[in-house]
Amino acid sequence: MSLPDKTIAMEEAIAAIPDGATVMVGGFGVPGTPFTLIRELVRQGKRNLTLIKNDANEAGMGIDHLIMAGQVRKLIVTHLGLNGNAIAAMNEGRIEVEFCAQGILAERIRAGGAGLQAILTDIGLDTELAAGKQVVEMDGKRLLVEPAIRADVALIHADCADPSGNLTYLATARNFNPPMAMAAARVLVEAERLVPLGDISPDAVETPGVFVDHVCPLIQISEEYGVVRR
Amino acid sequence: MSLPDKTIAMEEAIAAIPDGATVMVGGFGVPGTPFTLIRELVRQGKRNLTLIKNDANEAGMGIDHLIMAGQVRKLIVTHLGLNGNAIAAMNEGRIEVEFCAQGILAERIRAGGAGLQAILTDIGLDTELAAGKQVVEMDGKRLLVEPAIRADVALIHADCADPSGNLTYLATARNFNPPMAMAAARVLVEAERLVPLGDISPDAVETPGVFVDHVCPLIQISEEYGVVRR
Amino acid sequence: MSDGNFQDPRIRMVARAAREIAPGMVVNLGIGLPTKVIDHLSGDFPVCLHTENGMAGIGPTLPYEKADRNLIDAGGAYVSPIPGSSYFDSTVSFALVRSGRLDLTMLGAFEVAENGDLANWKIPGKFSPGAGGAIELAQKARRVVVLTTHTDRKGNPKLLRHCTLPLTAKGHVARIFTDLAVVDVTPRGFQLVELAGGITAREVQEATGATLLLPTGNIPTF
Amino acid sequence: MSDGNFQDPRIRMVARAAREIAPGMVVNLGIGLPTKVIDHLSGDFPVCLHTENGMAGIGPTLPYEKADRNLIDAGGAYVSPIPGSSYFDSTVSFALVRSGRLDLTMLGAFEVAENGDLANWKIPGKFSPGAGGAIELAQKARRVVVLTTHTDRKGNPKLLRHCTLPLTAKGHVARIFTDLAVVDVTPRGFQLVELAGGITAREVQEATGATLLLPTGNIPTF
Question: Is D98 close to A116, i.e. CB distance below 8 A?
Fold first, then answer.
């Protein structure tokens, strides 16, 4: 019994993403954003993408590059208040934006990764986020049906990976990465460190390699990953 | 900013459980079963309990003591094939038993801990486990409504705890413990080791202390926790 | 606070709000004004601060030179851990919120209604960046309080009979801290609880878009 | 296998089933007969074995003296880790199953029907210990195969036109390995694929409670 080596060149991993793909992107602000995978997606010019992400990063960072390059058709996010470019693109109709309550976006992604079809929740009832959503009555209470979300691809940033795809994260760089790493047909990971198989204790694994398709070790950590001085 | 000390004597923690309580009990087979908390529940003679657990342990072990002492009104489990006493008690009508598919029991508990009202799933459709359950149609597909489960009390076994209730688990002793540790009004933990606040790295915490109410360090590890020779 | 009258009214209201935090609470401080409450808590005050991007047990904010690039709060400030801190993913973070483990949240507001309705995320046609985690915080924290100036920049009241903007959550606000007063939401409407030093009940009523119920007897000041 | 005829029929069927596992697969071996498949995999065979109580990357089973009291498989056997193993809780374990990350599961059976229906968890009035994880494994693994004796202890067929017992899952079984044959479930019913050495197609048909489709040409043996 032995486990596979899933390391791959980043160029090759991104090349397999078709135009029109639905792509989950980890991160909340800077921490956990897969900046290098995003840069490669920009470089390869994939178009007509639907991105699922907590936020739209800030102007000049992360998925803003994809938005500004006109590669994004639709964004599913919880807020994009820190990125004026994204707000302008939305207001001018250059991108379609779907807003989701933050924890419900996380749960819908997790439900996709867990092979559930939907969750029932009272979050957003009596707000305009409930508009158009299916309502179910359970024990006399009205609940919203929030369907599971899956993507064609998930772009994940990990601190540490082994060749079989076991991952660990650091501090608040975890955020949306673990649920997204379970919820896509192809899960692509950029890892700050690649360690030999067996170096991550089985108890310490945060995303089991079974969920991961490709591991791309980062050769360098660009300034995008650094501390932002506002 | 500092965190509370939640350590407590086991006798006191169990004394707060009323007769008739619904109690989640961690464990899958021996690993992760809170044998010492169960023993104290037996000793204090709490009655009319509803237990939620993956399995019924084996004859002479774990919750079998509660069943044999007549303290259990109802069991919600995924299987009890390894405990002839439990099967007999079920067949003779001394306990009521509700069966649930294993992963769906885990998800229903998790949904309770996550403040969701229910999940929608196709698991168990076309089987007798679907009998009597609410069905919802979504995108033309029939799905079962599986309601979230919460309990009055959860009994958790951890390898390591700090005084604020941060927990880690070992190997397959994790199983149902993390979701149950989020899904009860009072979460009681027995821990093989109690370490000082700050000794568990914030990245290594598997159950955050925020979810935990009481930590009972184990003074000794009884033979029930050992290797079973069949 | 005896010297309350001489303080900046915003600092005074933040300091008053900080006293709302009882020892042992689990608290989420919303982005903006509420985050400043942290400056009024002593370093060893027994409180577990939560941030929805995935941390319980927030310690002091760090200057850029000392910041950990992987450790921010939901507002983007660089924070630090304390003994017993834990990190978790976004599903666990909101599990904590929705399942009732959050004792208190302090949020900003565009409008608060006398029935406890809150609007703080969208001004149609002007400002619609998405609600982030505000909807769940406002709907599910055990106690929801609001920290806001009593009126907007143009002097219009923010405490109203009915909200006019899209709601964040319906009927969950329990108390409002402003630069003028502390106001409770009661079944009978807004109840004046405390006055900022030097402010009269009449001035508060004039700055409020709904009827204020007055307490019998002296009104405490802060 | 040239010496197949001389082996214990059960060992032979387990060995044949083991060859169903392709390199790189993620596989769950059900409790009972399927677990024995592990004995027919070489120590370095590239496969990720999953057990639903919370582990991926199962290594060899350990004797009691060497067992770790915290490390069992779902059947209660003491197992060991390999480089790259991971442990996780029950929600993650079944997330893996339900979301299609399990390439193959091998399950035992009381009955299998020619349309792929499986019954393996309950005999009303006699045996109803609960299904454990069997329903999700049988419904959601990408490929579901069954490992069973061709007939029960009384000689009654287990491969039937219709299941008579409560179903575990409807229409998901793709292939059946027995002591007599390898049989595929096809849109037209049971298709004989291979014969155990020394067994004739006629003998398999006589032990089967539904019509067997025969291949044209020679039938391979195992």
Answer: yes
